[in-house]
Write a structure and sequence with these properties.
heterodimer; A: alpha+beta; BirA Bifunctional Protein, domain 2; elongated; B: about 650 residues; Phenylalanyl-tRNA Synthetase, Chain B, domain 1; 5 domains; 32 strands
């Protein structure tokens, strides 16, 4: 038998590589057998190693090994290319993971917090069960004042504190006003947003014994009514969409002076009350009443240790439920559903 | 308070061509809010909300006064009809004069009293025009002699009362203004029996019988009835706080009481009484049978307030011309004197609500129109001191993460029923209780979220697999101070214990906390959730097979992290092996894992992967930071693992150990 030189071996490997170039259009299954089968071209070639001189055997082995690896890779590639994807029914419905839901009030609170955070408001939290002093008296509402009738207040059983009075379930978030002034030791600037559970003795389709309010309070030198309007307009646009406007109308609260009622323009009829020739069914007048606001009463600043000759401020407080349910297309007509724990309701959010 | 004002009644007090729609729009923008316009027959009736400080607007005349100032601001002419109703017009119209009763006032209790006797009262049906108007404003119709008082009060804003003159005279001919003593009885004109609590202002006769509950409701023994022929037409001005006290105590919330408790201006008595007399003469053919009685010991001098112009500019953010400011104030019937930069302003008697500069600024600003002011977000300092003990971002993360894992967030009431309160594990006495609950199911402030959450699961029986959570306060009563409000994360699920615990573990991982351990209370079988040495909450399996947990947010707050501490990537490989042990029945697997984890420093983790009957399979990962572990390194550890579990826990290793 003629001995095989390394050059011969290289030439043969090259030859087979070229042959594969031409053969690659064939069935990959057949190619596998033809090249790498027991009696395939590679095995036939590798038998030549017997005839390689002993000093070249190691290099020849390496050459053959490398060639085998490249053949395997190439044939695998050809096989992959050739294989067709199995049929999948793309019209079959998806299988969803079990998704829970945030309660709509959480969603609203999150959004409200984010909107006010963007213009520098700090979110705070104060007691939901608080002294009459913070809920009323420090807000310029002495005991038995007729203005208190507006707040159908729950009281907690127990002794009356000489300084702070009875314990109440906060009927509004305004108890946070003097508490925030105290936290800052009477030193403005204040720019807070207080969002919390509130409680009133009332229950019907638009009232629940428990509800949520958000309260804004801004105090600094030179704060005026324009700033309140600016803040309201900003919120209206962010929450209800571009073009929504706010307006303030005279009202009365003991703890603000001047006091305002706040309306947002209806985002469906854009404040006109009309859609074409028809009356807007969503708002009836072009505007939605959302809550109260005003310039902080000097007595409230005083209660919080702030000099009303140097500082002025504004405050606003609205129901989260009311603000949220005004959204276009939401159509919640009974807010008691929010606290019913009924999953058929909750899973829609 | 709301008041109904028919359009045409209003036009008797203010002359204007404005349409009801314009009146609604402009009045609401600058004055009291017109909530809606109701059509009663052909008449438009305004439903107007009058704020508690503006009792002067609680009448047709009061709204007309506002309208006469506001409409011209929108270039719509409007003129208040001149008031010609003066006491000087009240002279006897009969020669048969009747003596006035003796009136013994207490100036501290009543600021003013006026009255006059009308004789020869003919009991005529209420005329159609008056009946229509009273119906439009939602009042009942009786006859002229009674309805006149309601009509003039609505028109001019001061309560007025008609006594049966003869009854008063028969009872002693004397009216004594005094305070009721506890236990004294009186019967109101509608036949209701009351017992005084003491301190109510009442009128008594010389015998000490209560003959009126003034400014709230008449009493039967002095009220007009079918036999009444002569009327004592009467007005008083009782201390507002005392009226409110009596009206609230006995829950008699008449229109008169609601006006009187808000300090209605005693100067309104003049037009109201004169108009009343006029109508009695016209409709009941009444004669004026006495001189007018008018005692006004509580007349208060008008107070003038200095108003710094700079202050106005501070509140408005713009400078209004002085002339504009003065015009507005004068239209509102304020008297104004200008001295340099200060206005000296005196409000009319009926505007007792205007006392401090901010009050005057409100008047100027609202009439000028809030809609004329620019809208600007404040360019002032942003505060940087954040409150302690809150982490709203973490609260949001918790909620989102649990929802993503399939948990449904719920909001349940903070107040619970007696039954739910008892399910908390605390006695009823250990709960804060409402003094005035509205409904039986909301009486106690809850100590635990669990009963509320289990109730939600129970109330949704159609959901076979259901997991709910709530982040809310529980309330722990403390002596002589506010209850402690503790923010809790409550979880309740129909899922098995290990899945719920796994969800809690995943949640804690989200905050980069070390692994959770559970300490079991042998008696209650409740688990205490521990992170290191911090107890963060509890977990338990309920009787209904639900699993519940409560995490205390304030325990978590100091330990949660916003980011991990990075560990260098391992340079050596770990070895993972499976062990299966047959454990005796009811063997707790937690301690086994704890023991194995500390058995050798090279044991990196021990994970329970499978339970099949008594067989428990653990995956143990060995790792050494210095070198790759060889079989001879692992072999001794492996043997110690098997020995430990078999000896300590009387288990049997499945398979052989090499």
């Amino acid at each position: 038998m003629v001995s095989v030189s390394l050059e011969d071996l290289k030439a043969k490997i090259h030859q087979l590589e070229q042959q594969l170039q031409e053969d690659q259009v064939l069935d990959p299954q057949k190619l596998q057998t033809q090249y790498l089968g027991k009696r395939g071209l590679f095995n036939t070639l590798s038998k030549a190693i017997k005839h390689v001189s002993p000093q070249d055997k190691r290099v020849a082995g390496q050459l053959l090994n490398a060639f085998k690896t490249s053949l395997q890779t190439r044939l695998q590639q050809l096989s992959d290319q050739h294989q067709s994807t199995p049929w999948v029914d793309l019209t079959a419905p998806g299988i969803q993971p079990p998704a829970g839901h945030l309660h709509p009030i959480s969603q609203a609170i999150e959004e409200i917090s984010r909107i006010f955070a963007k213009i520098g408001f700090t979110r705070v939290r104060y007691p939901e069960v608080d002294w009459d002093y913070y809920a009323f008296e420090s807000l310029n509402m002495p005991p038995n004042h007729p203005a208190r009738d507006e707040w159908e207040t729950f009281f907690v059983e127990g002794p009356v504190n000489k300084q702070y009075g009875k314990i109440v379930l906060t009927p509004h978030t305004s108890n946070g006003q003097v508490r925030e002034m105290e936290r800052l030791k009477g030193k403005p600037p204040i720019r807070m947003i207080n969002i919390a559970r509130c409680y009133r003795r009332q229950q019907d389709v638009t009232h629940t014994q428990m509800f949520h309010q958000f309260e804004g309070l801004v105090v600094d030198k030179g704060i005026n009514i324009q700033h309140l309007k600016g803040t309201l307009d900003y919120f209206a646009q962010e929450f209800y969409g571009p073009g929504t406007k706010s307006r303030i109308r005279p009202f009365h609260f003991q703890f603000t002076e001047p006091s305002f009622e706040v309306d947002f323009s209806c985002h469906i009829c854009h404040g006109t009350g009309q859609i074409g020739q028809r009356r807007c069914a969503f708002c009836k007048s072009g505007w939605h009443e959302v809550g109260g606001a005003g310039m902080v009463h000097p007595n409230v600043l005083k209660a919080g240790g702030i000099d009303s000759n140097q500082y002025t401020g504004f405050a606003f407080g609205w129901g989260v439920e009311r603000t949220y349910t005004l959204r276009e297309g939401l159509n919640i007509d009974d807010i008691r559903l929010l606290y019913s724990g009924d999953v058929r309701f909750l899973e829609q959010f | 308070m709301n008041i109904l004002i028919p359009h045409h009644w209003l036009l008797e007090q203010v002359k204007t061509q404005a349409s009801p729609q314009k009146i609604q729009e402009y009045l609401s923008l600058c004055g009291p809010s017109v909530e809606n316009i109701v059509k009663v027959g052909k008449e438009s009736v305004y439903n107007i909300e009058i704020t508690t400080n503006r009792v002067d607007s609680m009448s047709v005349r009061g709204v007309a006064r506002e309208l006469a100032v506001i409409l011209p601001q929108f270039d719509i002419p409007a003129k208040l009809v001149k008031n010609t109703l003066s006491f000087s017009s009240l002279k006897p119209t009969t020669r048969e004069l009747l003596p006035l009763p003796k009136i013994r006032n207490n100036a501290k209790l009543s600021r003013r009293i006026v009255c006059i006797i009308l004789s020869n009262i003919k009991r005529t049906p209420t005329p159609q025009w008056m009946a229509d108007r009273l119906t439009q404003v939602g009042m009942n119709i009786h006859d002229s002699a009674i309805d006149i008082t309601n009509y003039v009060t609505h028109e001019l804003g001061h309560p007025i009362h008609a006594f049966d003159y003869d009854k008063i005279m028969k009872m002693g001919g004397e009216i004594i203004v005094t305070k009721a003593r506890k236990g004294e009885h009186f019967i109101t004109l509608d036949g209701e029996n009351y017992q005084a609590v003491g301190g109510e202002v009442v009128f008594k006769n010389p015998k000490g019988t209560i003959i009126d509950l003034p400014a709230i409701k008449g009493t039967m023994n002095s009220a007009v009835d079918d036999t009444t022929k002569n009327i004592l037409l009467w007005m008083e001005s009782i201390d507002a706080e005392k009226i409110r006290f009596a009206s609230m105590t006995h829950t008699i919330r008449t229109v008169a009481a609601q006006l009187a408790e808000k300090n209605v201006d005693p100067h309104f008595m003049e037009p109201t009484l004169v108009r009343g007399v006029q109508l009695y003469r016209e409709l009941c053919d009444a004669k004026i049978a006495s001189e007018l009685y008018d005692a006004f010991p509580g007349k208060k001098p008008a107070k003038t307030v200095g108003l710094d112009l700079n202050k106005i500019h501070t509140y408005l953010g713009i400078e209004l011309p002085i002339s504009k400011i003065v015009t507005i104030l004068e239209k509102l019937q304020f008297r104004v004197k200008t001295l340099k930069n200060t206005l000296h302003v005196t409000p009319p008697t009926f505007r007792q609500d205007v006392t401090i500069p901010a009050d005057f600024i409100e008047e100027i600003a609202r009439v000028y129109g809030y809609h004329h002011l620019p809208s600007v977000v404040m360019p002032t300092r942003i505060p940087l001191t954040k409150p302690k003990n809150t982490h709203f971002a973490a609260e949001e993360t918790i909620k989102h993460f649990l929802a993503d894992l399939g948990w449904q967030e719920v909001y349940t009431y903070s107040m619970v029923s007696e039954v739910l309160a008892q399910q908390s594990g605390y006695s009823l006495q250990a709960h804060a209780k409402l003094a005035n609950p509205l409904t039986d199911d909301k009486i106690y402030l809850r100590r635990s979220l669990t009963p509320s959450l289990l109730a939600v699961i129970e109330n949704n029986p159609q959901k076979t697999a259901f997991s709910v959570f709530e982040l809310a306060n529980v309330y722990q009563p403390r002596p002589n101070t506010l209850p402690d409000e503790v923010l809790r994360l409550g979880l309740a699920s129909t899922k098995p214990y290990r899945q719920v615990r796994g969800d809690v573990e995943a949640l804690l991982k989200k905050f980069y906390l070390p692994p959770l351990t559970v300490k079991v209370d042998e008696v209650t079988q409740h688990g205490q959730l521990m992170v290191g040495k911090t107890a963060i909450g509890t977990i338990q399996v309920e009787k209904g097979r639900s699993t519940t947990a409560q995490l205390d947010f304030h325990q978590l707050l100091p330990i949660i992290k916003t980011h991990p501490s990075f560990q260098p990537l391992p340079k050596t490989a770990s070895v993972i092996e499976k062990f299966t042990f047959t454990l005796p029945i009811n063997t707790a697997v937690g301690p086994i894992i704890d023991d194995l984890q500390v058995l050798d420093r090279r044991i990196k983790s021990v994970v329970l992967t499978d339970i099949y009957q008594a067989n428990h399979t653990f995956l143990v990962e060995y790792w050494d930071s210095r070198h790759n572990l060889a079989n001879e390194d692992v072999r001794p550890i492996r043997r110690r693992i098997v020995t430990l579990v078999e000896k300590t826990y009387r288990a049997k290793h499945v398979g052989t150990v090499q």
